[in-house]
Design goal:
Strand content: 15-25%
Number of helices: 4
Shape: globular
Structural class: alpha+beta
Number of strands: 3
Distance between the termini: 43 Å
Strand order of the largest sheet: 1-3-2
CATH superfamily: Ribosomal protein L17
Number of domains: 1
Order of helices and strands: HEHHHEE
Length: about 120
């Protein structure tokens, strides 16, 4: 039976707050370090969010863009990095596909597949 099964959520056994905090943490670290090592499932979750954030920064006026971005990023340093270095690179080139996902290896202690998620 399918009672209470929500297949549209990527991490079914985590609460909403946990999912949101995990996504914000991944986004913050990605904009700070330009690349992160993570699992393919987590990379697939945040790739569309990255596209939306960069498009908002490039299209909206600055005040509304700051308000939108601060919903998704934890630190001021990561948002400054996004506004000053990351988003201007993609201003005229494209509207999506700002990331590259490259398989790396399998993690030692639990044999989970790891990928490198990096900004182009």
């Amino acid at each position: 039976m399918r009672h209470r099964v929500r297949k549209n959520l990527k991490f079914n056994w985590k609460t909403f707050q946990h999912r949101k905090a995990m996504e914000r943490n991944l986004l913050t670290n990605l904009f700070l370090h330009k690349a992160i090592k993570t699992t393919p499932k987590k990379a697939a979750v945040i790739a569309p969010m990255i596209d939306k954030i960069i498009n908002v920064v490039n299209t909206k006026d600055e005040m509304n863009a700051i308000r939108y971005v601060m919903q998704y990023l934890f630190t001021k340093e990561s948002s400054l990095e996004l506004f000053k270095n990351v988003a201007p690179k993609f201003k005229w080139n494209r509207t999506s596909w700002f990331t590259r996902v490259t398989p790396i290896k399998y993690r030692d202690w639990d044999n989970a597949k790891l990928v490198l998620l990096e900004l182009l």
